[in-house]
Fold:
Amino acid sequence: MKKLFYSCILLSSLSFAQTQRVEVASLNFDYVSPRGEGTAAVFTRSQTPVRDGAKVFVEKIGEDFKIIVEGTRREEFDVKKAPAFFLKAESMNLRNANLSLSSTVKLSLLSGLILNPKNALSLESLYLDCDRLSAPGDLADQLIKGCIQRMGLQAAKFISESRGQETLVEALSGAIAATLNQRRAFAGADIRSVGAAIRNGSYNAEATVKLPIVTGKVKSNGLVSYDDAGKVFTIRVNEIKYGIFNITSRVFDELKKHESDRLKVRKPFIYYSIK
Structure:
């Protein structure tokens, strides 16, 4: 699920550097590496919005993205050292994306699909509402810190496609399989009715997990923090339940199998680096 949360932040911050106010309405966008284009009813990162059917053009150049917006006037800007999540994307499709960014961030998306060589992320009816923390640092850090103070997140559907499951989704699948005395983890997972809230670093999250032979609700609570200097999330998991079953230990056992330079697991803590 880290991918769901972090992709929301990246979508909010990708194009706007240190811009203080952004408004995007009804954006429909298609990208096949290294180029993409789309249209928006409104697209502005300044005092004067580009309205009346703005056209958006994007080109990947090395580790940067060049973005051109044409409409009532023309804007051109670069995103330097863009996040790897987007740089590695083979294709992206966004439908009816809306973003309002000022002292808070509100992001909604009717549907989205992002594909890269190892992973695929599919979203439906996504909504994110976060604070934006006014503090030194880049925009992504401001949004991450603000979301840790106050966040509401909902998604009707979150699917980790067959190109390779997200680590946490795979860990949930393995933990549920072990709980149900299955010999192996289920292949593929469909995550629906996602809901998450954070207040002052305390999180509560739940989702319906649809696996090939069983469907059930997963709930979790705990604490989350972010070190902007080291670019590391720390999650202290109090509990993860699948229906009436406490699967916390089994999820940690599964996560331990996927440790990497970015992911470290020390129960009850999960450390994830976004460097």
